[in-house]
Amino acid sequence: MDKIKIITIFGTRPEAIKMAPLVKELDKRENIEVKVCVTAQHRQMLDQVLDLFNITPDFDLNIMKSKQTLTGITTKVLEGLEETFEIEKPDMVLVHGDTTTTFAGALAAFYKQIPIGHVEAGLRTFNKYFPFPEEMNRKLTGAMADLHFAPTISARDNLLREGINKENIYITGNTVIDAMEYTVEDNYEFDNEELNNLNYENKKIIMVTAHRRENWGKGIESICKALKNIVEQNEEVELVYLVHLNPIVKDVVYKYLDGVPRVHLLPPLDTKETHNLMNKCFMVMTDSGGLQEEAPHLGKPVLVLRDVTERPEAVAAKTVKLVGTDKDTIIKEANELIRDEEKYSKMSKAINPYGDGLASQKIVDIIFKYFNKTN
User: Fold this and answer.
1) Which of 190, 212, 271, 366 has the greatest number of CB atoms lying within 10 Å of its CB?
2) Which candidate in 60, 88, 134, 273 is catalytic?
3) From the CA atom positions of the chain, what is the Rg in Å?
C-alpha cells in the first residue's frame, strides 16, 4: 500500500505546541509519511518547542527578519512553499489555527490544488480586526480547507453557518490538551531559579502574559497599571509577567512594573517551563488564545485581557472570564478571585470544554478515512 504523504506546516510557538503531538501521532502510523515544514515566523520561540518534542524539520524556510511585516511574511511563505511542494508533491497539507503562516500555507497548497486539513478550525470573533490579523487568517484558511478539525461544537457551528459542508467537519477536541501530557510534571524543577524560589504554597502567584497587537499602546498601559494596583492591594499576591520580546510591549511593561515589589518580569519561557508554571500558579491573566485552553485543563481560572474571544466555549463553561483592558474592571475581577474562595473554586473546578487529550489520534484516523485507507 502506498503511504499517504502529509506535510505539516507551522511557524510560531503556539502552532508548534499544538502541532507537535499531531506530528508525533502521524509518525507512529506505518501507512503515513510525514514531513515537517517550518517557516520560522518566530525563530527562537519555535526552536524551543522543536527541541522539547524532539522534532527535526525536513524543511526550514527561516523567514524571520527584524521588523518583519505581514506582507513580507506572506510572500516569503508562499515562495518557499512553492518550491517545497514541487519537491515533495504531498497528498495533503496540514496547517493550524490562525497565523499568517497558516493562511499563506493554505494558500500555497490551494494554488497547487493540494488538499488542506485545518487543525483548530472554526474559531471566530466575528470582527475582522479583533484579533488582527488572526480572525481573517482563520476565515480565509477555512474557505480553502478540505477537512476542518473543529475543537468544539461551537467551532463546528461557526463553520456550518459559513456554508462549510457538514461532511467535512469533525469535532476532535484541541491538540493542546494532547501536548500537555508531554510537558506537565509533578514536583517540576524550573531552569529559572527565580521561579524555583517562589512560595507557591503560601503566596497567590498570578501568571501574566499580554502582548497581542490589538492591545499595543493604551491597552498594555492600562493592563500594567491594573497589575501594579492589584499587587499593592493584596500582600499575598506575587505576579510573574512573561514579557514578550517585542519592544512595543516590553518597553511599556518595564516602564510601569520594573522594580515594583512582588512583580517578577521574565522573558518568555519555553513551553515546558510555561506549562509547569501554569500548573503551580494560583490563576492566569492573559490576552493569549492558547492559555484560555491550557490553564482550565490544569484547574486554573483565567481572566482574559481582551474585549472579545474566539473561544466562547471557555466563557460559557465559566473556566475563563472576559475582562477587557479597562483598569478598574481588571482590578475588580482579579480582586474577587483573590479574595472570594467560593468564586475561585467555581472557576477552578469548571469542566474544560477542549477535549480529552485524544485529538491527534482522532485527526489521523479521519485522514485515513478521507483517503479511503486503513491504518
Assistant:
1) 271
2) 134
3) 20
Q: What is the pLDDT of residues 232-264, one digit of tens each?
A: 999 999 999 999 988 999 999 999 999 999 999
Q: For residue range 143-170, list pLDDT tens digits in order.
A: 999 999 999 999 999 999 999 999 999 9
d(CA 162, CA 118): 15
Contact 156, 124 (CB under 8 A): no
Long-range contacts for 165-170 (Cβ within 8 Å, ≥24 apart)?
169/121, 169/122, 170/362, 170/363, 170/366
pLDDT at 340 over 80: yes
Cis amide leading into 131 (omega within 30): yes
Could you please state the CATH topology (level 3) that the domain comprising 4-175+357-374 is classified under.
Rossmann fold (3.40.50)
- Catalytic-residue membership of 244: yes
Give the domain ranges of the chain. 4-175+357-374, 193-349
Active-site entry in 211, 212, 275, 311:
211
Q: Could you tell me how far CA 148 lies from the centroid of its own chain? A: 18
Task: Choose the catalytic residue: 91, 120, 293, 333.
Answer: 120
DSSP character string of 302-367: EEE-SS--S-HHHHHHTSEEE--S-HHHHHHHHHHHHH-HHHHHHHHTSPPTT--S-HHHHHHHHH
Answer whether residue 1 shows pLDDT above 70.
no
Measure Cα distances from 84 to 15, 61, 198, 216 in Å: 19, 9, 47, 35
- Give the global pTM: 0.81
Judge whether 211 counts as a catalytic residue: yes
What is the pLDDT confidence band of residue 41, given thresholds at 50, 70 and 90?
A: confident
Residue 215 has what DSSP assignment? Answer: G
Measure the CA–CA gap between 317 and 149, rounded to whole angstroms. 21
Active-site choice (27, 43, 47, 213): 213
Same CATH topology for 4-175+357-374 and 193-349? yes
Q: Where are the beta strands (DSSP E) in 110-225?
A: 116-119, 147-150, 169-171, 204-209
Q: What is the CATH number of domain 193-349?
A: 3.40.50.2000
Degrees to nearest 5, angle at CA 275 with 272 and 279: 135
Looking at 244, 264, 275, 311, which residue is catalytic? Answer: 244
Told to judge if 235 belongs to the known catalytic residues of this protein, a careful annotator would answer no
